Amino acid sequence: MLIANNGYSVLSKFVSDGDTLNLNFQGEQFVARLQWIDTPETKKSTQNSTDYKIQNHWSWAERAKTALINLVHQKPLICIPIEKDRFDRWVCDLYINNKISVANNVQIALCKAGMAVSYLPYNRYSYTSRELAVIRGIITETANANRKKVGIWSEPNFILPNEFKKLNLS
Questions:
Q1: Which stretch of DSSP H or E encloses residue 143?
Q2: Rounded CA gap, 151 and 166, in Å?
Q3: Spatial contact of 36 and 135, defined as CB atoms under 8 Å apart
Q4: Using the 8-state DSSP alphabet, how is residue 99 labeled?
Q5: Angle at 128 between CA 124 and CA 132, to 5 degrees
Q6: Model confidence over 131-156: pLDDT tens digits?
Q7: Is the pLDDT of residue 84 over 80?
Q8: Other residues' Cβ atoms within 10 Å of the Cβ of residue 62
Q9: What is the DSSP string of 25-78?
Q10: Which of 155, 132, 157, 150 is nearest to 67 (CA)?
Q11: 110 φ, ψ to 5°?
């Protein structure tokens, strides 16, 4: 059983999309949602569109998923679960190579690669120094990727994940 804010050595089992994956801790599998980032939305089986911008978004979703797979596949990971979300997923921070550091944070790496955008908390005013370092890293690397036109930022008309979710695609 996981306890919030503790670090656990875990293994990656399955990547659902660019910010959600199944992890294994001592034989128990759980779904983890990476904290404070958002990646392009994966195409659902019920969705279809001929609109280039929508198809392009789905294409970037697959690239973000591949980026996450490449980051975590067969690597020792540390997961720090924070809380459960409305979908019963553990919202968490994830680190590669069994080291809790900004350099090893998966969310920051995805932002640096231009595969994720910041999705930061509001109405929260208390953070640990580790959390502040992750937030700073996410903001900095998202801004750098945007400025350098890396990943999704290379697309002039890219639909950001929060805007894409507002579209009525059934």
A1: helix 129-148
A2: 22
A3: yes
A4: -
A5: 75
A6: 999 999 999 999 999 999 999 999 99
A7: yes
A8: 14
A9: ETTEEEEEEETTEE-PPPPPTT-----HHHHHHHHHHHHHHHHHHHHHTT--EE
A10: 150
A11: -65, -40
